[in-house]
Amino acid sequence: MKKLGPFIFFVVCIITSFFAFYALIRIGFLPMKYLLMIGGGFLFVLLLLLILLYRKHLIWVVLGFVLGTLLLVFDVVASTYLYQTDYFLNKAFSGTTIETTTYMVVGLKDKKLTENNIEGNIGYYQDIYNRDKILDMMDENYELNFLSYPTVNELLEAVFTEEVPIVLVESTSYNIMMSFDTRVEEKLEVIKTITIQEEKKAQEENRKLFHIYVVGSDFAGLNDFNMIVTINKAKKKILLTSIPRDYHIDVYGYDGVKDNITYMSALGIDTSIHSLEQFFDIKIAYYVKVNTKSLVKLVDAIGGITYCSDVEFTTSHALVMDTYNDRLGEKFHVVEGCQPLNGIQALTVARERVNIPGSDLARQDNCRKIILAIFNKMKSTDTILNYNSLLDTLADSYETTIPRSLIEEIGKKALKEGSKWAVEEQAVNGSDVKGYVHLGTVYDYTMTPNMASVEAAKKKMRTLGSE
């Protein structure tokens, strides 16, 4: 009976150590030599524990229980963190994501229409995203006669003049028009919303050198921040290429029609990706999409970030979310030098392009600074202490088609070969002008690409690490 207690204690230590080591294997980051070393360490500690627990002198037995207790604490803590990490990797890097597109049936407020009045003539924009799918869905549920309009302007004008009682419009296009035409918010109301979900998967890619499209969307769904991340695993190099949101380039699949990258979001993520592939002559393997709410939530979850500005300025946008109405909040004053930012402050700085030298190029630079500041803050001790809540926040903060296998592969390579990854940055530029955008619908700011900067960027993307 005297030996039963130490035996049970030893068995418990074996079991907890097994689960901790198994969790470490499941993560998939450690090369085999490190796993063997750690596994050998577990066996050594367990063997030492067994010897101490069965020594005749009490002091050695007590020392064994102390060692075993420390091992149990380590096993429990390590298992908790490792299984949380495993769950996060499965959830956040499944290799597929769901793109949700929202459509709105809209009519005049003074008509007091309801879902029961959805019948008869209904207008729609001829280039509405997923046109056949959304029209078939509407046709299955309502008795409708569909009328096509060549631009969103003409579509909304049709309902203003009561040419049609209701119109069908994609939510991003509707929000765009709301920011350009005050009548949209004053006179129109949404009668019904419909969503379509599509599964998106990673494209085939060269695992030695590949490209990731990183896009930040605002509350209206516009592509507000655009970056292509080029990774050369063999040379351990990363290239960040910033692209102004107003870059005016050919829209993939629209026969030479040009548009700002920001407005391509109304045509779905695939259109943005293929347009950038076509423009830079590359193949984009994966994408990561972050929205404004996610940015605010993530920055607040890590306790804020440190942002360093080269100039002093006051933002043209207010400290508000989910609206373009800057009268609803106060402006934010940024001092020259480094300062702490919370979530909404980081978002407001990331949006700024009017009151800062460099316009949209400066905005892209600020967004890049904020992303790097987030990564730096995530390495702090405070972040480790809030590990579980941070993983929960991260998992719901973005959409990506990056598979877990790639994350494991890069992590394993970094641990096996050591040394830091080299990160380089570049940006394409151009000339600010005004013209018709959103497929010719609205007159707004646009940027004509500087092709010399584009060609230099393309060369760097193709040859990263092989110069």
Topology, pairings included?
Elements: H1 4-27, H2 32-53, H3 58-92, E1 96-108, E2 120-125, H4 131-141, E3 144-149, H5 152-160, E4 166-170, H6 171-180, H7 182-187, E5 188-201, E6 209-217, E7 223-232, E8 237-243, E9 248-250, E10 258-260, H8 269-280, E11 284-291, H9 292-301, E12 305-309, E13 313-318, E14 331-334, E15 337-341, H10 343-351, H11 359-378, H12 381-385, H13 387-395, E16 398-400, H14 404-417, E17 422-427, E18 430-437, E19 442-449, H15 451-463
Parallel strand pairs: 2-3, 2-4, 6-11, 8-17
Antiparallel strand pairs: 1-4, 1-5, 6-7, 7-8, 9-10, 11-16, 12-15, 13-14, 18-19
Helix pairs in contact: 1-2, 1-3, 2-3, 3-13, 9-10, 9-13, 10-11
How would you sum up this structure, described in words?
By secondary structure, the chain is of the alpha+beta class. The model has no long low-confidence stretch (mean pLDDT 87). The protein folds into three domains: 4-92, no CATH class; 98-200, Periplasmic binding protein-like II (D-Maltodextrin-Binding Protein, domain 2, 3-Layer(aba) Sandwich), CATH 3.40.190.10; 209-308 and 352-463, LCP protein (Aminopeptidase, 3-Layer(aba) Sandwich). It has helices at 4-27, 32-53, 58-92, 131-141, 152-160, 171-180, 182-187, 269-280, 292-301, 343-351, 359-378, 381-385, 387-395, 404-417, 451-463, and strands at residues 96-108, 120-125, 144-149, 166-170, 188-201, 209-217, 223-232, 237-243, 248-250, 258-260, 284-291, 305-309, 313-318, 331-334, 337-341, 398-400, 422-427, 430-437, 442-449. The strands form six sheets. The protein has a six-stranded mixed sheet with strand order 16-11-6-7-8-17, sandwiched between helices. A five-stranded mixed sheet has the order 3-2-4-1-5, sandwiched between helices. The protein contains 15 helices and 19 strands.
